[in-house]
Amino acid sequence: MNPQTILLYDGSFDGFLCCVFMVYDQNIVDPVIRKESQTKNQLFTITEQVTTEESKAKRVWKGFRTKTTTAEQRDFFKAFLSEVKGVENTLLSYMKSTFNKKASTAIDFSNKDVLKINQVARMVGREKHRMEAFVRFQLTKDDMYVATVAPDFNVLPLIMHHFKDRYADQKWLIFDTKRSYGIYYDLVSVETITFENISGINTKAIKKSYNDTEIDFQKLWSVYYNNVNIKSRKNSKLHLQHVPKRYWKYLTEKNTI
Amino acid sequence: MSFDRIREKLSILADAAKYDVSCASSGGKRANSDKGLGNNTGMGICHSYTEDGRCVSLLKILLTNHCIFDCAYCITRKSNDVKRAAFKVQEVVDLTINFYRRNYIEGLFLSSGIFKNPDYTMERLVTVAKKLRLEENFNGYIHLKSIPGASDELMREAGLYADRLSVNIEIPTISGLKLLAPDKKHEDFIKPMQKVKNEIIQYKAERKIIKSTPRYAPAGQSTQMIIGATGESDRDIMYSATYYYKKFNMRRVYYSGYVPVMSDSRLPSLGTEVPILRENRLYQTDWLLRFYGFSVTEILNDSHKNLDLDIDPKLSWALRNLHLFPIDINRADKVMLARVPGIGMQSVSKIIQARKFRNLDWTHLKAIGIALNRAQYFITCSSKDFYKKELSPSMLKNKILKSSASKYNKHFNQQLSLFS
Questions:
Q1: Contact, B343 vs B375, CB < 8 A?
Q2: Is the dihedral of CA B392, B398, B400, B406 positive or negative?
Q3: What is the reported pLDDT for A47?
Q4: Helix B152-161 crosses helix B186-209 at what angle (to 10 degrees)?
Q5: How far is CA A6 from CA A29, A79, A83, A89, B244, in A?
Q6: Largest CB tally within 10 Å, which of A190, B48, B295, B357?
Q7: Count of C-beta atoms within a 10 Å radius of residue A21
Q8: Residue B248 contacts by C-beta under 8 Å, 6 or more apart in sequence?
Q9: Looking at beta carbons, which residues of chain B come within 8 Å of A234?
Q10: Is A220 within 8 Å of B52 when comparing Cβ atoms?
Q11: Does A109 contact B35 at a Cβ distance shorter than 8 Å?
């Protein structure tokens, strides 16, 4: 029995593409691709550290692009961001079957990898959309609109453009407390930022630095929210389907101010 | 501004606006220009949901609930004893901007009771939209109500600043309108619709020649009907809806189950349950007409005046037309695939793509996600195992009902079927 090869990469999308490059370059059969942070020692395996090189990643992506539609490329990237355990292996197998097929605009929805990627991408897409909907900015004393989130998947790279296009004339910051990084717009461009000291960006700290009228507008919003409800049509099941409880913590209207 | 006073006004004027069900913030593309505030990508976002499960995407308020009309179905009618209030133009602008900046809303939906006269009211609504666009450089979504009886000039100006305009027809039949809103004339509703439709046609024609023609109501127009207030049949409602879709190029017709809010001998009594299920069936029919290629006469006609409440309208149609089935999933054209109960448009597209690669069997169809509990009786695929026509329509219906768990089950018990 040949020992199985485990490829470890740095967790970036480019890093993953370099693993694919290596699989083809060295003809590795049945590899397992894993993030460095998830490493476990196993018997009868060979572990290889893959270094991220932009040029290699670009070559793989270029090849993938010639065989797929933009919708498929987007789904592929979304599925990667899902961080679902083992998604790299489904993506690899999907990529392999893509490289083997003739260029075509039709997608083979009877292939289980294709369906899986499609479903995972839809889950990520839903989470992205929810973040675009449920982010609640709070205005601070230094005229910055701040929000914290803890999304199920790593969607900040996906929502960046939406917020940049929409709030072009205000400074804003969206911080992912689960992954300890944020995106910040300084009226010119969006940058990814991290804090040495995580306690600098929690809800309590934000509350302390509220702008004078912030609380008033939050109260107005709650008043509005409570008055648009039609009591005789109450439908809690549907309500929870739309706003599952794990999102309530973001919502101004669901919390006492 | 004085927040206490604003809070009071907001509670009165949001409460009065909530029976308008239109919540769409989609369809009107508007880019963020010159680093201004907001954009509209053409896809709506629901920023919150009320406990009744409806989405909150716009700041939906009345400018005022003072009104000179006395329509029986309306909570702000003149003879109703409710608290009255009115916003100043600037107050609405400030609220919209501050809510928008905090990512609470997609934009503004401004309606109003009619004070003094239609033109005076319409002018106020237009002023709000104009201020938002020109002074605040606001590119979010604006939906204005067209006030029945407003002049053509004001309707033209409204469309230059708003994304969507709407007039609510409210009562689906003319006789019903006479009964419940004696002060209003049917023509008054039609006139602004006609104006908006013509302006949009004219804009599209002019734009082909001059690219810089100012845009006119890019998200089109919509209307709303109250369901269950005047005893009209589903056929009346859907025929009327089809008329508005065709005649005025409506983007949407909304159906709003009547919520009894005051007692009036002409209306269902207080405490009557809101016809939520009927509303749902009407929306399903609306979708079948707009996206699935059905014509209204196939679903509702002289021998079938009302929709079945216990099964969806597509299944109901299929049971009345069993001679067209079963169809072969691997060969049938798109039109016919869309007509199979349990297959939605997403699945239709997946099936059509997937069958280019191989013949599909039950496992594939299940993985793609079609509702086999209904679809299995109407299709064949790459398998020897399929449903042979052996049951009558009513027996098949019972079989399907038994195998499915409808969220509306509580409305039906087995006893009912004995009498139907």
A1: yes
A2: positive
A3: 84
A4: 50
A5: 11, 21, 18, 11, 63
A6: B48
A7: 19
A8: B193, B194, B196, B197, B221
A9: 51-52
A10: no
A11: no
The DSSP code sequence of A177-212 is TTTTEEEEE-SS-EEEE--SSGGGGSHHHHHHTB-T
Q: Which two tokens stand for residue B144?
A: 């204005």
Cβ burial of B269 (10 Å; 0-12, 13-18, 19+) is exposed
Q: Which of B303, B336, B332 shows the shortest CA–CA distance to B320? A: B303
Q: Could you tell me if A134 and A155 are in contact, meaning their C-beta atoms sit under 8 angstroms apart?
A: no
Per CB-CB distance under 8 Å, the chain A contacts of B366 are none
Of A232 and A151, more confident: A151
Q: Residue B279: helix, strand or coil by DSSP?
A: helix
Structure tokens at B388: 């042979």
Q: What percent of chain B has pLDDT over 70?
A: 96
For A239, the closest of B18, B51, B260 (CB atoms) is B51
Single-letter amino acid, residue A243? V
Provide the sign of the torsion angle of the four alpha carbons A155, A160, A165, A167, taken in this order: positive
Contact of A128 with B93, CB cutoff 8 Å: no
How does pLDDT run across A178-227, given as a tens digit for each residue?
Answer: 888 999 999 999 999 987 765 557 778 888 889 999 999 999 999 999 99
Cα of B406 to nearest chain A Cα, Å: 13
Collapse the DSSP code of A76 into the 3-class scheme (helix H, G, I; strand E, B; otherwise coil) and give the result: helix
Q: How far apart are the first and last CA of chain A?
A: 63
Taking the CA of residue B299 and the nearest CA in chain A, the distance in Å comes to 27
B35 residue type, one letter: K
CB contact under 8 Å between B367 and A236, yes or no, is no
pTM, entire model: 0.89
Taking the CA of residue B47 and the nearest CA in chain A, the distance in Å comes to 4
Q: What are the residue ranges of helices labelled H in chain A?
A: 13-25, 54-67, 70-81, 87-100, 112-134, 156-166, 203-208, 214-227, 236-242
Q: Based on the number of CB atoms within 10 Å of its own CB, is B320 exposed (0-12), middle (13-18) or buried (19 or more)?
A: middle
Structure tokens at B344: 């939605």
- If 0-12 CB within 10 Å is exposed, 13-18 middle and 19+ buried, where does residue A124 land? buried
Q: Are B52 and A145 in contact (CB < 8 Å)? A: no
B87 C-beta neighbours (distance < 10 Å), count: 23
Comparing alpha-carbon positions, the chain A residue that sits nearest to B43 is A129
Give the minimum alpha-carbon distance from B131 to chain A in angstroms, rounded to a whole number.
18
Contact B222, B251 (CB under 8 A): yes
* A106 closest CB neighbour out of B18, B32, B356: B356
Tens-digit pLDDT profile for residues B189-234? 888 899 999 999 999 999 999 888 888 999 999 999 999 888 889 9
Q: How far is CA B296 from CA A196, B236, B242, B257, B306, in A?
A: 63, 11, 7, 21, 12
pLDDT tens digits, residue range B113-162?
A: 998 899 999 999 999 999 999 999 999 999 999 998 899 999 999 999 99
